[in-house]
Amino acid sequence: xxxxxxxxxxxxxxxxxxxxxxxxxxxxxxxxxxxxxxxxxxxxxxxxxxxxxxxxxxxxxxxxxxxxxxxxxxxxxxxxxxxxxxxxxxxxxxxxxxxxxxxxxxxxxxxxxxxxxxxxxxxxxxxxxxxxxxxxxxxxxxxxxxxxxxxxxxxxxxxxxxxxxxxxxxxxxxxxxxxxxxxxxxxxxxxxxxxxxxxxxxxxxxxxxxxxxxxxxxxxxxxxxxxxxxxxxxxxxxxxxxxxxxxxxxxxxxxxxxxxxxxxxxxxxxxxxxxxxxxxxxxxxxxxxxxxxxxxxxxxxxxxxxxxxxxxxxxxxxxxxxxxxxxxxxxxxxxxxxxxxxxxxxxxxxxxxxxxxxxxxxxxxxxxxxxxxxxxxxxxxxxxxxxxxxxxxxxx
Length: 396
Prior knowledge:
The protein has helices at residues 3-12, 24-38, 42-51, 59-64, 80-93, 95-115, 118-130, 148-151, 244-279, 291-319, 325-349, 361-373, 378-390; strands at 135-138, 155-159, 162-173, 180-187, 194-200, 206-210, 222-233, 281-282, 285-286. The protein is an alpha+beta fold. The strands form two sheets. Strands 1, 2, 3, 4, 5, 6 and 7 form a seven-stranded mixed beta sheet that branches. Strand 4 and strand 5 (194-200) form a beta hairpin. The relative contact order is 0.12.
């Protein structure tokens, strides 16, 4: 391998050439996306993160790349492998933007794509892809996160030709300023079905309060939602949802996507650490010439490469429609755990400089904490994999 080729592979963190699994047109899409992201102002992203504000000026440029909805077009969806690599590139730039896209385009968008009526899909999916409509996914509650399947307290009561929804939701991304949310509720009476409703955020009875004091993924606007006698027509109900099984189907694919986000966030930290090691001098020579610094960098790259390999295989399973819940949980817990280790190694490379926002590593370090927890905590994903291994469920 030539020095130039080796340098390129190191830059993209693909020493084992996984990108060669993409066809030429997909590789062109990936390179175009990298080029578009390179034009995003790091200062704007850092300022938004520091102030816990969403960078609204970047919404339309992001939508223009296709990242909010290229997977929402029936019959023209990209491969899961390409989608994963694109997600990792966005998280490499900014994990908050990747999370925002994952909420609006995947959690919200895929719910409509898979379970919405033709009329709902025609109205919503193009608007999500263009960035004109920002969606939220209202599932988690103040008293139920990991146990939401059995602990959901939000209810939907049939009332004439519509529904009345009551309850509270928490940690709901995009809900303070987004346009519409899929609200998940349990049917009051009847068989107690799990139902999903498309609720505009301006509906009477809807209240969303921003969660303050959040020190991870600070750009993402998470909300505590109160729903008080929120009335929606029956046409707002997602007709393809009858049980928690449909929710799990969406979460299976978004859990895989979060694994790619964890990888990209780790790569972003590595970029900063490698640049610092090459350019910063101590004792009259670059840090990169010290053995212990090289050890930190190589350990980080081992984490990145092994995680990439697992995610690539899971994506290929998804492309063959063979991805199971335990596969998604395995790669998510692996990616998030190794990313947590990687960002710590990268922060160590920078020494005291590592805690300064402008040096980039600390943002990735802090963001890794949220990624480690959402879309299933490490422990919950462990138990899902454990159930598959042993045939015994450790859940209550």
